[in-house]
Design brief:
The complex is a heterodimer of chains A (257) and B (307).
Chain A: H1 3-23, H2 25-28, H3 30-51, E1 53-54, E2 57-58, H4 59-89, H5 93-97, H6 103-129, H7 140-164, H8 170-184, H9 197-203, H10 207-220, H11 227-251
Chain B: E1 3-13, E2 19-29, E3 33-37, H1 44-51, E4 59-64, E5 67-68, H2 73-79, E6 80-83, H3 95-105, H4 110-123, H5 139-151, E7 157-161, H6 169-184, E8 188-192, H7 196-202, E9 205-210, E10 213-219, H8 220-224, E11 229-236, E12 250-255, E13 258-264, H9 270-278, E14 283-288, H10 292-306
Parallel strand pairs in B: 3-8, 3-9, 6-7, 7-8
Antiparallel strand pairs in B: 1-2, 1-4, 4-5, 9-10, 11-13, 11-14, 12-13
Helix pairs in contact in B: 3-4, 3-5, 7-10
Amino acid sequence: MNGNLLWVAFSTIVVKEVRRFTRIWVQTLIPPAITMTLYFIIFGNLVGSRIGEMDGFDYMQFIVPGLIMMSVITNSYGNVVSSFFGTKFQRHIEELLVAPVPNWVILAGYVIGGVARGLAVGFIVTLLSLFFTDLTLAHPFVTLSILFLTAVVFSLGGFINAIYANSFDDIAVVPTFILTPLTYLGGVFYSISLLPEFWQGVSQLNPILYMVNTFRYGILGVSDIDVTFAFGMIILFIAVLGGFALHLLNTGKGIRS
Amino acid sequence: MELALQIRGLEKTYGNGFKALKGIDLDVKQGDFFALLGPNGAGKSTTLGIVTSLVNKTDGSVSVFGHNIDSDLTQAKLCMGIVPQEFNFNFFEKVEDIVVTQAGYYGIPSSIAKERAEHYLKALGLWDKRDNRARQLSGGMKRRLMIARALVHNPKLLILDEPTAGVDIELRRSMWEFLTKINEEGTTIILTTHYLEEAESLCRNIAIIDQGEIIQNSSMKSLLAKLNNETFILDLDRDLKSLPDLDGLEARLVDEHTLEVDLPKGHGLNSVFAQLTAQNIAVLSMRNKANRLEELFVELVEHKGAK
């Protein structure tokens, strides 16, 4: 296929993915908006007013970047894992497999579909946060690029999870037992400077800490970690996860007999 | 003439050790209407799965219009459309979206894809249902949707894996007409089916596969010429208490006024009528007992199983 045909195939997958999550917007776009609004009210307003400042900002301002990032992570991951597993489960993955679409285009299409949902939810949560606090972008390029790259990382993660999943239970295991704990322990609600030194070291093994803090740096201009290092690590994650996902597609793992 | 499909030494062993294909060779000529028959589990769907790259082969080679699936898979895929045995579309998508999306996977721009979707959905009687979700369609409509989807990129080879399974007679015949028409317009068709009447009336060439091996590969005409006997059912004008004398022909009374007669190849019906008339028995109507291909199929498969 030449470049033009590849573009048509790629955009077809992306449009299909966007159409899917917008068709079921009550399941995909509304729940994170409600959950995050509750976080803003309960943690940001009610509890946060008693906590005081964190890293020089009032608590609401501090947690908003983390909560936006949490929405992006869970939704980009959730979109790809449920969509691609559903595609496998209903066997309409065969529509793609019989067509002359290269595997990297399939992967890119699903990942950008996940990114689209992650960013859509991130945008909604950002709009909602404006009812509770003022947001200014200290570093707009850092903010937008880390948001995009993080959505790519977790879309790739969702894709790999979907390839290995054999049942709907399997697509809930990683979000429940890995993603949620790492997100909550990734500095969404606190600065790791509050932790004892040992736990600060342990926290630095958590990749989500780097994403949340880099995003916070983009908005507030403060971070617990080295932003350059964070970007390097995220790009490495994308390369490793992307390469692995492509390898699984090329070998037909879970999708070809 | 160029071959639409060429298979050489195709083998497939599944992960559990089951050898589904044991080195099959198969040629399908361009423009052919070809039947691939076999009992359940014989290897038909595995063969088609490998051709369409849904199944990884263990050994052998497959070429579609000269494009080897190992070295030139993209071109091979562009030549093929597949209608699988099971429904494999998104039940929550709209009918038209399913066809247009499939066209997009082949790099066909949206405007052209919509024109083609309209053409094939109209040809298959689904245009009125274009805005319905696929799950709202009847079984026959779902099968026709899969045909429209398979044709949207105008493939030179259409592969249909039991396309009329569970479809009522009227719809089946309209699908036969449609398939005959596109075959006459130049599309090569490979068909698997359990309705042997379907294969006999549609296909010019046939291969029978059993236990992973091709046990018959010839023209339909030459295969049917191998039949030694044909059975006719005669409805008689009166009740019979015993078998009439038919000069050594095998015959049975199904009930008091229905007679089954086995006629050897080349034996005319006139002598049967003459002998019955001589015994004051009139024949009111007559029909073939069974599909001729079915008899051969059973004979071939049973013979293979007995080996």
